[in-house]
């Protein structure tokens, strides 16, 4: 695995099974009347240079650099939301780190990704059409989007593409562990479990900080790390774990009580996108 900085990281041994950490993972709340039709064709990303690769998967080439970003949205995130978030990650940090190819993946239609409806299998053949075989690949997955990301990683492993897995730096953002395994983790270039904390709050931890810590404990033998996004003044109320759940996306979520993917993924005006966890993964 690539060497990682250890400033706010705890590097290092694992037991690991397919559902490690999920006893601690709290599924996102299902709001009554929430629109979970995530087909995406009404989203305006089709008018801004994005092309459809598969169901719930979009791609855009943003510059001539070879690096790749694959961003997985959380439960109920429309593809347009994830596309806006992914674009902001590139604009704020990953573009200067060599990323020129971006995939955005919509969130699963149910919190546990039981339907397995996302067209993950379309990403690998599409990626092979331009991949130079050496470029870094960043995979980020928020919340339940981790289950979708794990499906993609398993598909690579099943296809015998350990060479691609070895170039992937995977950041699990306050997400779950189903579908991940020790064998798969050992193939990754880097594996990182991320949660958020607002030190100004009496109770200032993101909703799934417990899952992140459990997953780190289980997978640290593979070289996995734990990263705390430490942001003071998030605007979240003390104890509002679901608001803090989105601090891994933006320094200042829009709703002080809960997550708001429609705005937290798309509106970064005076609200910086969260990129700190990338720093240990970017090779100078």
Q: What report would you give on this structure?
A:
The protein has 284 residues and is of the alpha/beta class. It has a single domain (44-281), classed as Rossmann fold, CATH 3.40.50. 22% of the residues lie in helices and 17% in strands. The chain has eight helices and eight strands; from the N terminus they run βββαβαβααβαβαβαα. An eight-stranded mixed beta sheet has the order 1-2-4-3-5-6-7-8, with helices on both faces. β3, α1 and β4 form a beta-alpha-beta unit. The protein is globular, with a radius of gyration of 17 Å. The model is unreliable at 1-18 and 31-42 (pLDDT under 50).
Keywords:
Rossmann fold, single chain, globular, 284 residues, disordered N terminus, alpha/beta, 22% helix
Give a topology summary:
Layout: E1 51-54, E2 57-61, E3 67-72, H1 79-94, E4 99-105, H2 123-127, E5 137-142, H3 145-158, H4 162-165, E6 168-173, H5 182-185, E7 190-197, H6 209-219, E8 225-230, H7 241-245, H8 261-264
Parallel strand pairs: 3-4, 3-5, 5-6, 6-7, 7-8
Antiparallel strand pairs: 1-2, 2-4
